[in-house]
User: Fold this.
Amino acid sequence: MTPDMVDMLAMLTPLLAAAIQSGAPLLFATVGEIITERSGTLNLGVEGMMLCGALAAFVVSLGTGSPWLGALAGCAAGALLAVLHGLATLTCGGNQVVSGLALTILGVGLADTLGAGHIGQVAPGFDPVAIPVLSSIPVLGPALFTQDALVYLSFGTPLAVWVLLFRTRWGLHLQAAGENPAAARAAGVSPLRWRWIGILAGGALCGLGGAYLSLSATHLWTTNLTAGRGWIAVALVIFCAWRPQRAMLGAYLFGGVMALQLRLQAMGAALPSSLLLMMPYAMTVLALVAFSRAKSRAAGRNLPPAALGVPLAGPQGGEGR
Amino acid sequence: MPLRLVDRTKPLPWGGFFVATISLAAALAVCALLLTWQGKPGLHGVWLLVDGGFLHGYALEDAVRKAIPIFLCSLGVALCFRMKLWNIGAEGQFALGAVGATAVALRFGHWPAWAVLPCMCLAGAAAGALWALGPALLKRRLGVNEIITTLMANYIGVLVLQYLVYGAWKDPVSFGFPMTELFSDAAQVGLLPGSRIHYGLLYCVAAGLGFWWWISRTRLGFELVVSGENSRAARFAHMPYGMLICLAMGGCGALAGVAGFLEASASVHRLQPSIMVGYGFTAVVVAWLGRLRVPAIAAFSFLLAGFRVGVENLQIELQAPAAMAGVLEGTILMAVLSGQLLNHRRLVWISRRTTP
Assistant:
């Protein structure tokens, strides 16, 4: 190997590691939203659920000293907010877009209100643990296998969700609620129940994504910790065509852009920081544009669940139960 | 379960008013709970919120000042929502409007007021409209989801503003603070005589009347409403659906842009990052609550602006965080949305014997 290549590889490992770290919260949230949308509900409250999850995780970890309890609390907080979305859309038949927006406004407000007293505090979080043998693989080892517990969990989550969605009866029931609720009901499957499950599971994963931000990425609390990541996750769901396995690709791509932007800033790039900060958001728009072009070519394969956003009590959904 | 929801044949009389009142009460109750949780006097806090927002002349003037940009933005958002275009981008369009107006103010500030102010207003409207047309064209040509693109455009728009005030437009004598130099007197929108409310209020009256006239008295306005109700029918009737998308989004961008111009010129007298306080997001809440009815949009703009002023009072008196305003807005929206159930259905108690 030439010295140049060695240099490049030495640069690559930390960048890859950083991409995986910035991608992990996106991955949790994207996979969570995929579950929710597969069950037929659009939940735009990801940003709010993530931020509340981040705060709950932080506070519980601070109080109990256990980051694991914190992560659980993050899941619970995300799911709890998702209950509001379920009540508004499933129980009361309200508009899903508006309810999701309300959830984001409410969740961000709640987290920043309740977290105001914790700004600058440091809580016990997750620290990197090197996996023996695997972490000594050159280049990839330090990037993939010298991470913290939540990152390892984020590797497994899309695979587990893929198996659950596409290889089990439960997954079939959940998808039926999102594709054709009337047919599901005729087959004796309650779409209402599976939509609730989809909303709750999605909320819990979004909360976990938030927990990653306050317990792994940083060990401290600041206002607006998520900074739009929830919305990027909503876009990633479209980008990865509602498939959990593709979510990994999307999340790491975006994580990579975020990491690169931070790195360029740290290196004192000639570009002003505000232009660098635009990169992830501009990338999101570009990715959607590119994807919509690809979609028109491969029409039919990358479509959303057929009954996504269709209320159960409406004309297409038949009777509520 | 013996409790069942039964459809109402007629909507609940006064249902909207009823639901709005309960939602307000719920939002204030959540606020009191949060304050109590943080070891602050909850009920007294709610009093401070209402008192500080609505019950003094000074507070009312502040509320009107804040209601002006919210009203203009939410008129635009309401246009888009009526077409079922989920434009969440008023915040970014507001930022670009302020940027456009500032560009004129910095370059042509020596012109007399009658020349420079209309140019600033037009530049603000044009910049906001262009910022909104991007997502509109992507939606029309490629079917790209407008929720995501307008949101991302918000983040990018705010960063454009920051890029300019941290860089090319930074006032050399601002001691490093990110702000432009003060606008010349001619480039500042003045105050209504004898008050602290600026002439932006007249812009609101004009925009409100124009909006009402356009929606209810013109063919295009009618077509916009119809396309919102049923886009398939609108296409079959050869209504210019694609053009209407651009018109609604561009109109929203222009209105939000004017709001940005007013905020920079009349309130702050310069461009600085702190003019972005989330009016564009509040406007989304207002637009949905007020639908297409101008008086309702005005009323909700004033109400939520008053709450913002009240939260500022809470910040001073109880050191409560500013994010409380978000909690109030989110709760009201969520509660009104859920409460609409009561408008169309009612709960009845069915005894076991009569159920089949």
